[in-house]
Design goal:
about 300 residues, globular
Length: about 300
């Protein structure tokens, strides 16, 4: 069996903005396997990220199993809702958070990566944003809905379209999705459920197209709820985690490292025949069709006799 040895491989993880979340955990897992790490950070928060890194705020989180600290070869400011310079509105160019930056559209970052490193082997899309995520779908504006689709799903197509030609044959591409793509999650609004559904559908189509065009594999991981900074914007992440812990087959908290381990496998030669897959890493929550902690079941001995692990 081919081992998960990624020495000599270059991996670009797009969407790391702090030391929490799945993108960061995946970067560490790939680094542990020997990959050289490149980071794409949302343009407006690049300064904050670099400052936190240089001041040592991430040092504890950067520790690898060998005692060394996670390092990156280069960090690229990127805003994946813009494909080319001409797509950037004037008000964005003049925004103080963008004023000192340049070359942050997808096509420009691809050209920079090619100039700096030639080809890469791994591409990770860890991006999601819905400006109206706290609104019900019925209350979501057209602008908010399209913004969620643009930044959370079309951005994956754009990244692969521009970076595919720069990837070595046999390379691997990965995105992150969520069960709201196929199940109703009240409160996860603003078109984000639609964006995740599109992302999963696109994964299958892109697996075919990128596989035949560049010999690349394309997969996505449907990860369970995690209390990251980004997830806190939903406003009910603690309730989502508690619900999953009470009702999933494995009654425990999901760790970012568990998702990262699965990502490392899918991105490695060990998964050389796996593409077009949505892999659930959620303690089995996706398999459930009944909330065993529901008050409606309290008087039913069939369910009350079942052990529900919550620790």
């Amino acid at each position: 069996m081919t081992q998960m040895d990624l020495k000599g491989k270059k991996a670009l993880i797009v969407g790391i903005g702090d030391d929490q979340g799945f993108g960061w955990a995946i970067a560490k897992a790939l680094a542990e396997a020997g990959a050289e790490i490149l980071i794409g950070t949302w343009a407006p928060i690049v300064k904050i990220f670099k400052t936190s890194w240089s001041m040592g705020k991430f040092d504890q989180s950067r520790k690898l199993s060998n005692g060394k600290l996670l390092e990156y070869a280069k960090l690229y400011p990127i805003d994946a809702v813009f494909d080319r310079p001409e797509d950037v509105p004037q008000e964005i160019k003049e925004n103080k958070r963008y004023a000192e930056l340049s070359g942050y559209t997808v096509s420009e970052v691809a050209k920079q990566v090619e100039a700096d490193f030639g080809k890469i082997d791994i591409l990770v899309h860890s991006l999601a944003n819905g400006p109206e995520v706290t609104k019900n779908l019925l209350d979501t504006s057209r602008k908010g809905y399209l913004a969620a689709i643009s930044s959370s799903s079309y951005s994956f197509i754009s990244l692969l379209s521009h970076f595919g030609p720069l990837m070595n044959q046999g390379g691997s591409v990965l995105s992150l999705t969520y069960i709201a793509s196929e199940r109703v999650i009240p409160g996860y609004g603003g078109g984000m459920s639609s964006a995740k559904a599109a992302l999963e559908s696109d994964t299958r189509t892109l697996a075919w197209e990128a596989g035949r065009k560049w010999n690349l594999r394309v997969n996505t991981i449907s990860a369970g709820a995690l209390r990251s900074r980004a997830a806190k914007a939903i406003g009910m992440i603690s309730d989502m985690i508690a619900y999953a812990k009470a009702n999933a087959p494995l009654g425990k908290d999901l760790e970012a490292e568990e998702v990262a381990s699965a990502a490392k496998f899918l991105l490695s030669p060990s998964a050389s025949a796996i593409t077009g897959v949505t892999l659930y890493v959620d303690n089995g929550m996706h398999a459930m069709g009944l909330a065993v902690d529901s008050s409606a079941l309290q008087n039913n001995t069939t369910y009350s006799s079942q052990s529900v692990t919550t620790s």
